[in-house]
Structure prediction request, 309 residues.
Amino acid sequence: MPERTTAKRRLRAASGATATLVVLGFGCYAYVHYLGGEEPPRCTVSGEDGTSLTLEPEQAANASTIEAVASARGLPERAVTIAIATAMQESELRNIDYGDRDSLGLFQQRPSQGWGSKEEILDPVYAAGAFYDRLVELPDYLTMPLTEAAQAVQRSAFPDEYAKHEPEAALLAAALTGRAPAALSCALPAPGSGDGRTPVTSTPDEVHARMVREFGDGVQPSGEGARLTVPVPTEADARQGWELAHWSVAHSAELGIERITYGDRVWEAARSSDGWRELTAGDGGGDGSGEETVAGAADAVQLSLAAGE
Prediction:
């Protein structure tokens, strides 16, 4: 373990020319507990070369937080790959409260080695930030072999173990940064089975707070009621939209997010095994009209939420 260680609107073409993201979070189809005979919840990342990676929702959520913290700092995709590979090795992307000696959290950082208090280290946003603080101190971290960069931060007793996670970490980083569109999807269990699973709900304020805390002040959802708008710089392309869409999918089980649309794609918890589908007029936008009626333009990302009771 280390001694040191971070969406009537016109249907658009598949090019992703629009920057509209819609999230409907009724909280009916995301569950904390899984019981019964269905497939367990899972998240899948797909690569252009046919490779894929399957994660538990908790792992996908933690990886998306690691990416969001890098995005807030303006760090490149390579930094995300290094951080995710490190957390894969140290904790299997789980925020664990135990480890070798006093090691804790996603990166197994140690309070006794100056990484912060136990409470801070067990906060994934803090832990990811602390990792990046040390990583960017390395002048050549972008060109160093991943295992060397990770080891320079971590000071692990097993310095060669980080390298084996690089292909999967790179696959995950490409999706979470938005470079690979519609590459991450989560399949959640269907509702109504009566098996004792606990439904998760959230409010627009809660989702607002989470996005701002993880992505920083550059992501500022605003609006009234169940609709939030996230301005997107005019120079931004579809990549930032997919970054936010993938973050929302990764956190869907945790926040009770039920529906996400971006461009001409839609993800719904009720049909989550279908992954990202092409959006059609019959899918509707949640306003009761049967049409996609998302106000907005190419310079805004919009999130619509309907909170549970």
About this structure: The first strand starts at residue 21 and ends at 24. Residues 2-21, 24-36, 192-196, 286-298 have pLDDT under 50 and may be disordered. Strands lie at 21-24, 42-46, 52-55, 184-187, 227-231, 259-262, 265-268, 277-278, 300-304.
